[in-house]
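User:
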Amino acid sequence: MALVSSLELINKAREQKKAIAAFNIHNLETIQAVVEGAYELNSPVIIQTTPGTLKHAGIESVAAIVKALAGMYDIPIALHMDHCPSFDTIVRCIKNGYTSVMIDGAVLDYDENVKLVKSVVKMAHAVGVQVEGEIGRIGGVEDDMFVNDTDAAFTVPAEAKKFVDDTGIDTLAVAIGTAHGMYKGEPKLDFDRIKEIDSLINIPLVLHGASGVPDESVRKSIALGMAKVNIATELKNPMAVVIREVLSNPDENDPRNYMGAAKKAVKEVVMNKIRLCGTVDFADEF
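Assistant: Predicted structure:
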């Protein structure tokens, strides 16, 4: 089927206290692993790219691959641009078929952030594309952007409401104790903050930095209002491990072997995360 609206998936998941798993991909094999894993579980899924991935693979190439696979598999698939600070890049993504975008102005002061986000919302909504925004800065590393622990301010619930009202965004990423990348210790999520933010705003919440968060914490976050869960590092790590293992054989030189093994490892993670988000057989609802 054709690519679908991310918001349609997320809203229906929110109604049923589920979440749509959103996976950051990097190449052909990771895209295939996500789509094939979701198909086997009959689950909707969101495929995401960061600016770094698009610099590596190209917007046109990534979009063409995702659209081709969406046409091959009868499940709802959305294509999302993650953590993009550039208005122009978002325009290019939308022109190439992306069904949702995240404009990331979190490094700006509040007024400048709102101005940037509103400009993207106006443009994207004119062509039926959903916009995700962020208030509060989620710690860790995303592409080449680093936010240290001191700067990773928790989202203030009243500010979250004001930001949503001021910008007109469709989904909101909030800082509640998660971080991009893997954790040095066990993350401590502020569940009361999630609950309060969810009670104040009328749009779905997005959990960033979910790689390495214990399953029970993810489940509780979903029950409290998180309707989209982003996974990135937990795909990259097993992929790298498997490739190293295969290439430990000095005679191995066939990309089909080491990338095939990597794809299998990524697919396993994808399926586990979909089960965690509660969307097995959820594709039947669309």
